Amino acid sequence: MASSGAMVLAMMGLLAALVCPAAAAATEFISMPTDNVGDHSYGVHATVCPNLENIVRDKVADARRNDISVVAGLLRIFFHDCFPNGCDASLLLEPSHLYSSEQDLPQNKGLHEGALQLIQRIRDAVREAKCTDVSCADITMLATRDALMMSGAPRYDVHLGRKDSKRPASFAEVGRFLPARDAKIRDLIQVFDSRGFNKGDLVALSGAHTIGKATCPSLEFRTGEPAWFVKAIKENCPRSGDKKHILDVTTPDVFDNKYYGNLLVGLGVLGTDMELLQHQETRFFVENWAKDEHLGWFHGHFAAAMKKMADLPVDPNGEYRDNCFRPKLVRNLTADGFVASA
To answer: Where in the cell is the protein located (predicted)?
Structure first.
């Protein structure tokens, strides 16, 4: 049964729909929690790995103390892995002689190396605790949630029990579902709608840009006003090299609603961020969440959208990787047939 808190958030969405036609046009406001999604459920590891969440939380806390940027790094990995093809850790796979890596796509360039290594360190610690049937996908999901909570985001429960994919998703598939850096609002709405996310979800998940940095090439398509700001961020962020620019110029390390306020005064760093103001319904959420003093509505919708993304369907024919960056068993087609190698 849904919690009373979730019911309150749902009523908030209903009230907004009644008072604002733009809000009413959104497909849904809050995704109500369910007990099971496919083969995934809450507490699935409670018996076989009772310390899983403690292990993840401790490792994330240590990493965050040493490098606050790991929070946004985990979040980007989570979104870019889950949104195109479900949370199956396919993004983590490094290139091999059999396939290219999803990390080679332009949208996936510049993944946070510290966040990638943190996921593997957690995997090693979980294995040392004799927890073999825990996937890198579940670890990534838990690590992202805990890192966000430590930075001020709301807690949300996630279904666990998924497996890791045995190979990356196709470039065509990933490229179709990850928004391009020059995407316009109609493109963003279409891409999110194709994965079952409404306009409120789009704006809520974009709110994750309240933390972290963008690679400099991502700023190429930021044009318009205020001209002084666009000029300043581009001068501070040359297109070449590995330099990055903070996404929230007000409170870059805190998960709050300042990102939305920045957009309203033209201080959005990415062109896709500023596009949220170009549609009546998405602008409605930006304006209201910018003045959401207690963050209840924004936090509720963000948590629901993150949970919805975590529950996107995955291929059940996966495995539990020991090394998050390589499949457990690779079959190499040679002149003599298939040869198995670890």
So the answer is: Secreted
The set of catalytic residues is: 80
248 is in an annotated binding site: yes
CB neighbourhood size of 253 (10 A): 16
pLDDT in tens, 164-197: 999 898 888 888 888 888 889 999 999 999 999 9
140 is in an annotated binding site: no
Higher pLDDT, 181 or 90: 90
All domains in the chain, ordered by first residue: 31-178 (1.10.520.10)
What is the average per-residue pLDDT within 75-104?
Answer: 91
Q: Is 251 annotated as a binding residue?
A: yes
